[in-house]
UniProtKB/TrEMBL annotation:
The species this protein was found in: Sulfolobus acidocaldarius
Name of the protein described by the UniProt record: Histidine kinase
UniProt domain CBS: residue ranges: 8-64, 67-123, 132-190, 208-263
Alphabetical list of InterPro entries matching this protein: CBS_dom, CBS_dom_sf, Diverse_CBS-Domain, RHF-like, RHF/RaiA, UCP036983_2CBS_MJ1404
GO terms, molecular function: kinase activity
Coiled-coil regions listed in the entry: 344-371
Length: 377
């Protein structure tokens, strides 16, 4: 099996605790880099990504330490299967690589991994519609930039197809929004706030990109992945005729490689009745994948299970669903339960509660780690 060292790259942008967000964003834009490692004395201590910037709007003059996320990483000695699994669960564009002493050694990008497997037989056999993420989350051309930002942040995605009528009219990415948001720095605070409000209220059609690069559901993965790599994009809408039926990204292509390596992804859903079929299953799978990616950014996930149970029926024969979400991590095990008439609503509530508990525990552990240092000072 190939060595991870063969895929290693030296990032053009690296940050430290004290760097200003404005400076980092400017370099990310110039170098077309989506993920920036944050180092302290050669040790990986965090990352800055467009996801972080999208979810937490802070002053451009703030320091990196106030925005960075806990570090996602793979070890230099990890096999390629482990690396693929990490990309799949975190949905990252790039992952820092560390050695056994947690020293930063480089990054591995999703594009580099896909290029390595581009000519695999599995890519030539599979069709885009077999692996795409469906249904696609879309936005109307008349909707505001603020709504686009909310949809991306809430669903842990970085691209939205823009719909006008029933057809795809454009596409908007997290980077499109953030580049505009942070380009208004250097002005007076009151002026910045006014510009932000104007941008957030602006209809998507005014800043969307078009024409849109799309792919047909019947196209094979080799051709589709090649388009992603040559056009330097992370994903594209999938069309059947003129109708959008899903989104295809490098993460979806990695599913095929994961099957080749017979990888066991740490996610399992026990469904009941009609939830096993059709659109409900696809929505449930999509929600679980997105929340798994969020949790993987906080701690290493060992196991993630969700179970649905039909508890009762009302007088009008409407079912009540109970959802139990359970995640095993290196910090411990967390469980959350929720009930609702709508199984999707119950699922969202349960995984949101689970995420909140993991975040609180992570913050407590981080606070304990920092406390002795504060006392020494």
């Amino acid at each position: 099996m190939m060595s991870l060292s063969n895929l290693l790259e030296e990032p053009k942008v690296i940050a430290t605790y004290g760097d200003r967000i404005r400076e980092v964003i400017s370099k990310m834009r110039e170098q077309n880099q989506w993920v920036v490692p944050v180092l302290k004395e050669k040790l990986l201590v965090g990352i800055i990504s467009y996801n972080d910037l999208l979810k937490k709007r802070i002053s451009p003059e703030s320091k990196v330490v106030n925005l960075m996320s806990p570090p996602i990483s793979v070890n230099l000695n990890d096999d390629i299967g482990r690396v693929i699994a990490k990309f799949y669960t975190t949905r990252s564009r790039a992952i820092p690589v560390i050695d056994e002493k947690k020293r930063f050694t480089g990054i591995v990008t999703r594009e580099r991994v896909l290029l390595q497997f581009l000519n695999e037989e599995e890519f030539k056999k599979a069709k885009v519609r077999e692996v795409m993420n469906s249904p696609a989350i879309t936005i109307d051309a008349e909707d505001s930039v603020a709504r686009a930002r909310w949809l991306m942040s809430n669903n842990n995605i970085t691209k939205l197809p823009v719909i006008q009528g029933k057809e795809v009219a454009g596409i908007i990415s997290a980077r499109d929004i953030l580049n505009r948001l942070y380009s208004i720095s250097g002005k007076k605070k009151s002026s910045i706030l006014t510009e932000e409000e104007r941008l957030m209220a602006m209809p998507i059609k005014e800043i969307m990109n078009y024409p849109v690069i799309t792919v047909n559901g019947a196209e094979n993965l080799h051709s589709a992945v090649n388009t992603l790599l040559t056009r330097k994009i992370s994903g594209m809408p999938v069309l059947e005729g003129n109708m959008i039926v899903g989104m295809f990204s490098g993460i979806d292509a990695l599913k095929v490689i994961a099957r080749k390596f017979e990888l066991s992804m740490p996610i399992e859903a026990k469904l009941t009745g009609e939830l096993k079929e059709g659109n409900s299953r696809a929505i449930i799978d999509s929600i679980l994948e997105r929340y798994l990616a969020k949790l993987e950014r906080l701690t290493e996930i060992l196991d993630f299970k969700v179970a649905f149970k039909e508890e009762a029926k009302s007088e009008n024969n409407k079912k009540v669903y109970q959802v139990t979400a359970r995640v095993s991590t290196k910090m411990g095990e967390f469980i959350a339960k929720e009930r609702d008439w709508d199984p999707i609503t119950a699922l969202r509530k349960a995984v949101e509660k689970l995420e909140d508990r993991v975040i609180k525990t992570s913050r407590k552990m981080e606070s304990k780690r920092r406390k002795p240092k504060a006392e020494e000072i």
